[in-house]
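TODO from last week: model histidine kinase.
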Amino acid sequence: MKNYPHLQIDQSNCDKEPIHIIGTIQAHGFLMVLDTEGKTIAQVSENIHLLTGITAEQCLTMSYEELLPKEVLAEISSFGEASAAHEMVATPFPVVIQEKHYIALLHDLKDKLLLELEPTHHHSLAQLTQLNALQASTFQQLSQKNTINELSLVAAERIQQLFDYDRVMIYQFDEDWHGHVVAEKIKPGVKSYFNHHFPASDIPEQARTMLRKKGIRQIVDVAAESVPLIPYLHPRTGKPTNVSSTELRNPSEIHLEYLQNMEVGATVSIAILVKGNLWGLICGHHQSPCLIDYYQRTTANLITQYYASCILSAKEKDDKELDQTYKQVEKTLIQKMEESLNIKKSLFVKPVTLLDLSSATGAALVLNGKITTLGKCPGQAAIRKLVQWASEQTLPQVYHTQELYKVYPPAFGFKQVASGLLLLELSRHNQEYILYFKPEIKETITWAGNPDKSLQMDAEQRLHPRKSFAKWEQAIEGKSAVWSELEIERIRSLGKTVVSIQLTCQAEKLRDLNTQLEGKNAQMEDFTHIASHNLIAPLNNIQGLLGLYHHQEDFDTAQLVLDKIALVSGHMKQTLQELHQLLKVNQSKELSFELIDLPELIRREMANLSSHIEQTGAQIHPQLTVESLRYPKVYMESILHNFLSNALKYRSPERTPHIKITSWQADGNVLLEIEDNGMGIDLEKYGHKLFGLYKTFHAHADSRGIGLYLVRKQVESLGGSIHVDSQVDVGTRFTVRFPLVGQEDTSRPPESIEGMAREGSH
């Protein structure tokens, strides 16, 4: 190929064509590579004789001071000083050579200088003023538009007016680098490509890289023969010179053939850079050769830069409104999670759900092995397989695609609901994810020619671009709408909070588990204490009595020993029963709540204790404002039994026992109060250990110290509490608070017990 004397471009390396070291320039200008130390000409374009009247070979033997005009030499001298001071690396300046006007451009390549001379129209001051006026009016018109479509149409019209080209297109890249013509201005009779798409191969990666670095590119005559640099390799470095910064660099021969097949005679391409990224191009096409000089191109480039800033402004305005909405949704979801520490409920219960954080139509949460969905989603089996696949891949924490089936083929089966996937990883190890789904958007794309035939190989293994740019339609399947940066960022932010809440919940669970373990350890200590004091001692006693029994010959004495053994073993049996009760309370996980009839339950307990009641003459006075409540029956029986039996057991020998049982509702609780006139308890002395296991406070033969311990366990295990008031030789009042379950708080406490209600609610 003429561009690379030492390199063959074919199908194996066309995508890496080194266009920055093309060894030819366009024929309308001249290029020299200067060695400032020796003031020699290292390389020169072969057509230099048209400028100087001497051949390239002769120029290479001369000092450039002999060849170049004084005004050019002066610029070279000042350019070198400025470049050394890092004030500039390139500068254009006008020069007249043999009565022809040129723009000279100097490029600093550190070890060499490039001088290019490009013809220019002779612009009068009035003409330059007109260019400035066109630029100013275009800026004003662009500033009045609000949408990208409106901005693009203005830009296309004004660039077409500036160049007087046959066609000017605004060409926007998608995420796959395919181009889409979003605006166009053409002259009558010229073919339109509006709304057509061009494949990414039309502007390959190396060309896009060049456009990012050098934002404007002109081809004056597509059909012109290129002009080689003499020699191709720099004599000192032995390498091709990098000409990527020059205006005159010749295009790829494949690209020139591409333009000829399009029936284009001249082009100008201007990069549209939005926030430093290549958003698209302004492409000007003319059917015949045409020079757009440096001043016109500079004006067009300034208009394009302003147009790009307007695109950014319009996009940021739209994004700001949507982002405010998304941020409010995210704030609400985060607040719900922080308050409840329930991720599933917070994200899926309306009115605000995780689906409001995106334009997706379906969402799923895979957490703790369970799948929760909202909106239109694949089936749970399909989601589980998708999550399994994702956990086996090396994906970023937030992964998104518009065409899921291309990376995960089974997704083609549910493309109607999930062609697009946004996947937020919570824990790859545990296969925990948030998934968003977008449905398939069936559409027909119009291409400028068959995109699958962008390059073809001839019999001589030379590459050629496609010849046809005729309308070619393609039906698109399995592709969703795009995932916007706002969606991705908001969902990424939400994911951080979800992970944080997960860690908080896990920490809470660990704290709860630690508390349970501490409780179990305390229980083990209690049981050890019981075993050592209430089982081992009786066992030792029994062993001693058995020894005594074996040595007795007197029948009456032996019978007395057996009676003592029976008594001790009875005590051991009672201790074992108490241990069994404790285990039932401590190990019960789920208890059945049922509606309890309090008057009936009190009557039953009075019947169970009838012998004690008759023996003591005790009077029991129920005053029940609440006659029923939902509670585990086995617990309520135990609570009533222990309070009533204690009231009878620890009665005052000086007076007849009176026991008052009161119930009422207050502040979402049922309160049950048992008040007696018995011996009372010294709370200052014993209050801190009142509910301890095996703690007794009266010298009584039946005192075991387990009743109040059991009552507290049973009440507190279900969220209740106990309050006690007592005076020695006056009596005791226990107030139990039960959380209200399944019934409304409608009753009021009697006047006589309002004070008791306040004391019992702590």
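Done. The longest helix spans residues 485-550.
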